[in-house]
Design a protein that fits this description.
Blueprint (H helix, E strand, L loop, with lengths): L1 H20 L1 H11 L1 H12 L3 H29 L1 H20 L4 H29 L5 H25 L5 H6 L2 H11 L6 H6 L3 H12 L2 H14 L15 H16 L2 H14 L4 H28 L2 H25 L4 H32 L6 H53 L8 H10 L7
Length: about 450
């Protein structure tokens, strides 16, 4: 009984830590998603054309690309916890500047500042959670970050709808609340035990592990395995080593396909696209809320499935659904979906696509990136994953409206259907199953050359 109480206590602490850290994901989702509704007002206030809309939208993505690259060396030097706290401060500054922006130039700069914080969180929060979570719960714990991301997106869609008759400045300003919660919460949480061990502070690492596991013997065994696999902090060039390459291919590939399969095209521009094909502005915003609910539910399902089914199986089972949904969506736009039943088929196809895409690739991206790299270059590997994500996101956000104009909505979604099919083939070939394995066991498989054969 005493052991059970200790285990429950340790699990409760881990859950609390993961929940507070995942608030960074809530900010990530809110600040990237709120532009969907705000853009309708900002376009009118600042008389923006297509290029202007894409620049305002993509500024946060450009900042995120820089933020995730800066976070890697700083998190290795200062620690995961302090970097998350710093990101929270940047969120606060960016939110204040955005909500008070007198013109489009200041707004773009504010969105870039917010992007820096988003990029930092996307790089370091999944790593922090992965390094404190027990192996049997690591999947759902890391996916908690993605669940917070899509929850933030849903909150942004709801806020956008409720504030549609208010100022877009209020939409941006509401983001300051979770930023303050993240900063205060992280200030009282422990440092990563694996980061402490990497820095040579084995006593501190053991104290943290003992607190997290509530079993001195289990904590000692885990610390011994960390020390046994430990190498010194590696430079960026370590990612080019042949034995690390399978991890790079798997994680970067999932990150790339997470974006180029089209989910953020739907996320950023759904109201604009739907308003353009006959939905009223309020109806378009309500459609976005339905998408947000679908994303939260599918991510919650994915947080269960990554440990129950496995990472690879989840991807292979859900991606085909995204392909079919996009084919239906493209067909509806091709035949005209502005009246009657076709309108609702179009909306249903978008929601189904969000369920299948978010429940697979978006669930897996941060988890795969956080767990496949060896400790010596994990932070830099995760930066590469995040940089790939944000580079592809920048490309999507800068080109979506132009693609719709050039190819038509139908052609654009046919293209995304084909890319989802390619993503399925990539997962089948290059993404192994890491469910139930410790981070050190995954690293050992890389060194032994058996990483791709993990099932």
């Amino acid at each position: 009984m005493a052991h059970d109480r200790q285990t429950a206590h340790g699990s409760g602490i881990v859950n609390l830590i993961a929940g507070v850290a995942a608030t960074g994901g809530l900010l990530f989702g809110y600040d990237t998603g709120i532009i969907s509704a705000a853009l309708l007002q900002i376009t009118a206030d600042f008389t923006l054309g297509t290029l202007g809309q894409q620049i305002v939208t993509s500024a946060i993505v450009a900042g995120a690309l820089g933020g995730c690259l800066v976070a890697a060396p700083l998190s290795d030097r200062l620690g995961r916890r302090y970097m998350i706290m710093f990101a929270a401060l940047v969120f606060i500054v960016g939110t204040l500047v955005a909500s008070l922006s007198p013109g489009v130039v200041v707004l773009v700069c504010a969105r870039f500042i917010l992007g820096l914080a988003v990029g930092m969180c996307s790089q370091i929060v999944p790593v922090y959670i992965a390094e404190i979570a027990p192996r049997e719960k690591r999947g759902q714990m890391v996916v908690l970050f993605q669940l917070a991301v899509v929850s933030g997106i849903l909150v942004s869609f709801i806020a956008g709808y409720l504030c549609r008759n208010q100022s877009w400045r209020l939409m941006f300003g509401l983001g300051i609340v979770p930023a303050i919660i993240l900063f205060v919460g992280m200030s009282v949480l422990p440092r990563s035990p694996r980061w402490l061990a990497m820095k040579g502070n084995l006593e501190g690492a053991f104290e943290v592990l003992q607190r997290l596991r509530s079993d001195p013997q289990a904590a000692r065994t885990e610390l011994d395995s960390i020390v046994a696999m430990h190498d010194e902090q590696a430079p960026w060039s370590a990612l080019l080593q042949p034995w690390v390459r399978p991890a790079v291919i798997a994680s970067v590939g999932v990150a790339l396909f997470c974006q180029i399969t089209g989910i953020n095209a739907v996320l950023y521009y759904a109201p604009t696209i739907f308003a353009g094909v006959g939905f009223g502005q309020a109806s378009a915003l309500l459609t976005s809320i339905a998408i947000g609910v679908a994303m939260v539910l599918s991510t919650a399902f994915g947080s269960w499935a990554v440990d129950a089914w496995g990472r690879r199986r989840l991807l292979l089972r859900l991606i085909p659904g995204a392909v079919v949904s996009l084919m239906v969506l493209a067909t509806m736009f091709a035949i005209g979906s502005t009246h009657g039943i076709n309108t609702w088929i179009t909306a249903a196809a978008v929601v189904c696509y969000a369920i299948f895409n978010v429940g697979s690739l978006s669930v897996a991206i941060w988890l795969v990136g956080a767990e496949v790299y060896p400790l010596s270059c994990r932070s830099k590997g995760m930066s590469l994953v995040a940089a790939t994500h944000w580079t592809a996101d920048l490309l999507i956000s800068l080109t979506t409206l132009s693609l719709v104009q050039a190819l038509g909505a139908a052609g654009t979604f046919w293209m995304y259907a084909a890319i989802n099919l390619i993503a399925f083939a990539f997962v089948w070939r290059y993404v192994p199953e890491t469910r139930g394995r410790s981070l050190e066991e995954i690293e050992a498989a890389l060194k032994a050359g058996t990483f791709n054969s993990l099932t």
